[in-house]
Amino acid sequence: METYKVIQWATGVVGTSCLKGVVRHPKLELVGVKVYSDKKQGLDAGELMGGDETGVIATRDIDEILALDADCVLYCPLPWHTDEICRLLESGKHVITPCPYYFPFIQNPEAAAALTRSCKNGKVNFHASGCNPGGIAERFPLTFTGWCNRIDRITMTECGDCRTYSSEGVMRELMNLGKTPAQAAKNKLKEMLAKSWNEPIDMIAEGLGSKVVSYEAKHDFILANQPIETAVGIIEEGTIALNHYQHIGITADGTEIIQEQIWYCDDIEQTRLQSKMEIPRQSGWRIKIEGDVNLNVDIDFPSHLNQDERVAQGLSTTAFHLVNAVPLVCEAPTPGIKTFLDLPMITGCMGTHVTERSPGTTRTDASPDRSGPAFPSPH
Fold this sequence. Notes:
Layout: E1 4-9, H1 13-24, E2 28-34, H2 45-48, E3 58-59, H3 62-67, E4 72-75, H4 82-90, E5 94-97, H5 104-107, H6 109-122, E6 125-128, H7 139-145, E7 151-161, H8 168-174, H9 181-185, H10 190-207, E8 212-223, E9 228-230, E10 233-235, E11 240-251, E12 256-264, E13 284-291, E14 295-299, H11 307-331, E15 336-337, H12 363-366
Parallel strand pairs: 1-2, 1-4, 2-3, 4-5, 5-6, 6-15, 7-12
Antiparallel strand pairs: 7-13, 8-11, 9-10, 11-12, 13-14
Helix pairs in contact: 1-11, 4-6
């Protein structure tokens, strides 16, 4: 059995879950950890994730990370830097990340070209994955379109009570929570966010054999009517406590594809907000397909979990999707950017057993064919 050597880059909320996933995965070996703070420098990876010692010591030195003998890097910083990703690829290491670029060819052609060039130079692959984007936004909707023939509209909605979410950068910068309306209007990340949510829209269109011909972005919000306590501090009265994004693409064949996020700092009753909006669910995701077959697919965690546990498991889904993609990304042929349209199904891994599916085959012969895309491409 081949084992893949993995470096964990950044150990925030998602990165720490990645560490746990790598250590438990039967096909992976942790060989390096990149951290940013002085207090994490020199610590064992096990101490960073609250587990047993691993013998792998965290470092802030990028050159030290680049020099490591490794197959793949799980790159999880916020903010991310395309030039760092390219350096890793050039060093001969596959890169998997929850950061963009999920399907960058249309929204970010310059980044796509740079990543592709670095992949070819390093003879490796790049894959952006995660939960949303990185699963709910594109992979799962495409899967359910296989039950349909005419598709009029696909909507992916994420609803989340974010009071226990502990990433200040995500809460205050990406989600605009705690900003004034004027600050949100001037948010430098607005254009980047639109491109990030349009990438899954482009990928779905590609998977359907079409292309997007028009885009629209809508941004609504509701302000707090009182101070609201959160894991990243107080959301002050008069600042944004519910943020509602919609990014919409219309394909050449008339299918409407909508990416919707409703992030808020309250319970479903919204008593701490100056007004209310209809929220389809308290926390979780809904994939809605409308056409000749109409589907509502809800993805949620068990109701007995408290909000802290739901948030923790939600972040873990991002991390574990990255971890489970490592063998497939490392094995994918033809160096380059690999999207969900290019990879086989990503599954959890509990062992290394392979069933012989034809008489006389070897374990290698019986392995899944990884030469073609998981979804047919029109190109």
